[in-house]
Amino acid sequence: MPQDPRILVDASSFLYRAYHVMPDLRAPDDLPTGAIFGVANMLRRLLREHPSDEIIVVFDAPGGTFRDRLYAEYKAQRPAMPEDLRVQIPLLHEWIEAMGLPLVIIPDVEADDVIGTLSKNAESAQNVIIVTGDKDMAQLVNDRVVLVDTMKGVETDVAGVIERYGVPPARIADLLALTGDKVDNIPGVPGAGPKTAAKWLQQYGDLNAVLAHAGEVGGKVGEALRASLYYLPLSLELTTIRCDLQLPEQSYQRRPQDTVKLRALAVRLGFHAWLKEFPEEAAHAENVELTDSNPEEIDRSRYRAITTLEELQDLQKVLEAAPLVALDTETTSLDPLLADLVGISCAWQGAERVEAVYIPLGHRDGSPQLDLALVLKTLRPWLEDAAAAKLAQNAKYDWRVFWRQGIYPAGLQRDTLLESYVFSSGYNGHDLDTLAERYLQHQNIRYETVAGKGKSARNFADVPVSEALPYAAEDADVCWRIDAKLWPQFANEPGLRRVLMEIEMPLVPVLARMEQAGVKVDRAQLEVLSAELSQEITVCEQKAFIAAGQSFNLGSPKQIQEILFDKMQLPVLKKTPGGQPSTNEDVLAQLAEQAELPRLILEYRGMAKLKNTYADALPQMIHSETGRVHTHFQQAVAATGRLSSSDPNLQNIPVRSGQGRRIRQAFIAEEGFWLLSADYSQIELRIMAHLSRDERLLQAFAEGQDIHAATAAEVFNLAPEAVDNDARRAAKAINFGLIYGQTPYGLAQQLGIEQSAARAYMDRYFERYPGVLAYMEKTRALAKQQGYVETLFGRRLYVPEIHSKNPARRNYAERAAINAPMQGTAADLIKKAMIAVDAWLQEDLQRGRMILQVHDELILEVPDCGLEAARAALKQRMEGVAELAVPLLVGLGVGKHWDEAHG
Predict the structure, then answer these.
(1) Is the separation of the CB atoms in 434 and 444 below 8 Å?
(2) Mean pLDDT confidence for 438-467
């Protein structure tokens, strides 16, 4: 009787791939966790799919292996493991062991050899599944061993190996020996690619036979083969996976999961979406449980394609009668300005179940489809009916796709992306696939499964309708079901409901219009700046080489570490999570007071970032159809509610340097227009005054005092007229430092004073502003009690580390709890202001358009004739967006370019 399969996981190869796919995922204390997340998520899926099967996780051991002794140059060209990947490995090992999975790490051999031996040692009746993306593993495939690449969703058996490589599994090592491996530095035959090597093996047999017939191979590649005869046997030894290891005795039995440890690690790593899997009686930072014990039953076979006029007319009647419809589009591009409609899907609650259909419109496979113009004409009344309630996932994109077709949808009721974001702001990921797993315990058909990936990717228009139907209809179906799970939860959360319905949902069309408008960029000015930066970077490099006494790569943290700390013996001020001396910006800024080289490295980094990220990249992002740059505003990323932008990111343009300001100068108004900038003044300090109700702060703002000068007078016991620039600067550092939970040490570093003096300043501040101290203590206590804090408008910000046993992480969470209500309230205010300003602009489209939002600043592009009216309207709406205990104050600026307007 066949046994359950043995599943062998090549975790090392998967770790590298996950690292490159998700490099920026970070834990609450800024520890990189992308690779951990990728591997851990893969293992979670394996456990779900193989609940009772044997699963063994294999890792490479640190240090060399027997192959290094065979060939000293083996893997010599492979770059050292990135430090931000290295620090993740011990935590990933902890996660795997807490999952109860056997973890195998054998010194002196590679994971490949361990897996080869474990696959051979499996019982004769036992099938083996090797989870890997490593091509070398193909040599292990046989009639009971298959490879599974979980990232690509591909399973490879014997026939698959032959189809892909042209040779059977037993000849894969020979093939690799002939072609060589640049990554592992294994020498092959120069000029012999996989097809040539496969042809030789097909003709002659194995590698030994190829070597015996080397004289028969003509041309330059034949000469190269004959010149390679002496080392090819060594190459074969290096490429052959050993299956005869004497493995130490170890149990491969799965142990019970340590849910306490897994929960602690999930919190530690910021994997809040997984907390529901690890219940804890005294949970402090969880959201309301939204998943059922059983996965959602979704029957894709019931999905229908609408391909006849009669079916379309029947659908029109159903949509018009349905109280709520989920709507989704399939297109030719991720860029809404270029995306053509390929299809439309809809889902609604039928008499007995959720119904979902797909209307194919632009598929190129010859399948029956309705005419695009006919469908849009038929559905236009429903699409543009504000009374017809609609639902979408990331509606901003779909709405812009319809705009391109001359359709202006109305009646957007809710967006599941934003529902999840508002309800579960601490979770990572609010895309539809993630939400399906989180709330429905259902795995969607992946886009890559339908349209392919990498070189095999195809445009969705080239996907046959029969394949597109289940994927597209499922998107609408799942969207409807997620809303059915999430929306009822808002009934018990009035604050969250208010944030969703009064802030986030009304903002969707505002952001869509801003993205559609874009901003004009001066290409010629950026090209000049790029050339200048290139020259200045070269000069900076030469100065750095002189200061270091040698040339080196200024972009290499490792080389910088060696020069600063080994050669120059500068003090190590901070270490990375992996224990290496840190060379981050703060460290270099402090070291720059002792030596010139750190200052030059900082200068180099700043110029390189400006050149690569903006001066060189922005001209490439000018849209071919509009001549403008169109950023994408991300509404569901920052837990505080702050907007972010991407492609390009306009939130982090450096403005303190003259070169950074020149980047802003390249953002210009169209001919006959002005850029109008409006910036909230000291918004977070004003929010602090409102929340703390400290009498002195309230009085200072009510009287229109310079708050930093007023603070300097209070803290340093100075008469107002005696406050100089140095005192004001120190008071400003204290004001903003306290908002961000700065410690005495941090303040001392910033002001260049002793830590005792910084502590004295902070103590005096709290003496003069006791309401601020009371607010902080109250907020800290509330966060510990309920696991979250809230903004003035009800946005919830979770602080799960508030109960950490690690003092550093707990202190960080406490500082975040104090700051989050202010930063989150500021985010809510600017969003409400955007909604109010957009409403004024929409009353008369000749008034101009809102084009950018950066932190607390809004930028409008307005015509010459409407400038004064826009100034008055912008100031009035931004200052009147909410009534606080202190007045909101907005500063205005006007210019032909952004820097002039902002200044």
Answers:
(1) no
(2) 88
Q: Which of helix, strand or coil describes residue 294? A: coil
- Cα separation, 360 vs 642, whole angstroms: 37
pLDDT band, very low/low/confident/very high, at 32 (cuts 50, 70, 90): confident
Collect all residues with Cβ–Cβ distance below 8 Å to 777 and sequence separation of at least 6: none
Q: What are phi and psi of 643, to 5 degrees?
A: -75, 150
pTM, whole model, 2 decimals? 0.69
How confident is the model at residue 284, as a pLDDT?
36
| Residue 590: closest CA among 570, 607, 610, 566 | 570
- Tokens standing for residue 672: 């006959």
506-508-513-514 Cα dihedral, nearest 10 degrees? 100
Structural element, H or E, at residue 700? helix 695-702
CATH 3.30.420.10 location in the chain: 301-518
Evaluate whether the domain defined by 3-161 bears CATH number 3.40.50.2300. Answer: no
Q: Is the distance from CB of 585 to CB of 602 less than 8 angstroms?
A: yes
pLDDT 10s digits, 685-706: 899 999 999 998 899 888 888 8
State the pLDDT at residue 285.
Answer: 38
Token pair 């922005």: residue: 618
Tokens of 58: 């294999």
pLDDT digits (tens, 9 = 90+) for 610-636: 888 888 989 999 998 888 999 999 998
Task: Note whether 143 and 119 are within 8 A (CB).
Answer: no
Give Cβ neighbours of residue 361 (< 8 Å, ≥ 6 apart). 341, 342, 343, 344, 369, 370, 372, 375
Name the CATH topology of 684-820.
DNA polymerase; domain 1 (1.10.150)
pLDDT of residue 874: 95
The answer on pLDDT for 293 being more than 50 is no
Q: Give 615: exposed, middle or buried? Use CB within 10 Å, 0-12, 13-18, 19+.
A: buried
Task: Give the tokens for residue 44.
Answer: 């979670």
C-beta of residue 147 within 8 angstroms of C-beta of residue 132: yes
The CATH 1.10.150.20 domain(s) of the chain lie at 684-820
116-143 burial, b at 16+ Cβ within 10 Å, e below that, comes to bbbbbebeeebbbbbbbbbbbbbbbbbe
Which of 370, 309, 313 is CA-nearest to residue 342? 370
Give the model confidence (pLDDT) of 803-852 as tens digits.
776 676 778 788 888 888 999 999 999 999 999 999 999 999 999 999 99
User: Percent of the chain at pLDDT above 70?
Assistant: 94
What is the full DSSP assignment across 584-622? -HHHHHHHTTT-HHHHHHHHHHHHHHIIIIIITHHHHTB
DSSP-assigned letters across all residues of 471-515: HHHHHHHHHHHHHHHHHHHHTT-HHHHHIIIIIIHHHHHHHHHHH
- d(CA 110, CA 754) in angstroms, rounded, equals 52
- Under a CB-based contact definition with an 8 Å cutoff, are residues 398 and 329 in contact? yes
CB–CB of 376/343 below 8 Å? Answer: no
Domain with CATH 3.40.50.1010 in the chain: 3-161
Pairing type for strands 390-392 and 412-415 reads parallel
Q: What's the rounded mean pLDDT across residues 534-551?
A: 91
301-518 falls under which CATH superfamily? Ribonuclease H-like superfamily/Ribonuclease H (3.30.420.10)
Please give the CATH number for the structural domain made up of 521-629+637-668: 1.20.1060.10
The phi, psi pair for 810, rounded to 5°, reads -65, -45
Dihedral, 637, 640, 643, 644 alpha carbons, nearest 10: -50
What's the CA gap between 325 and 318, in Å, rounded?
10
Distance CA 708, CA 410 (A): 47
The pLDDT of residue 283 = 38
Peptide bond into 336 cis (omega under 30): no
Give the strand pairing for 390-392 and 325-331.
Answer: parallel
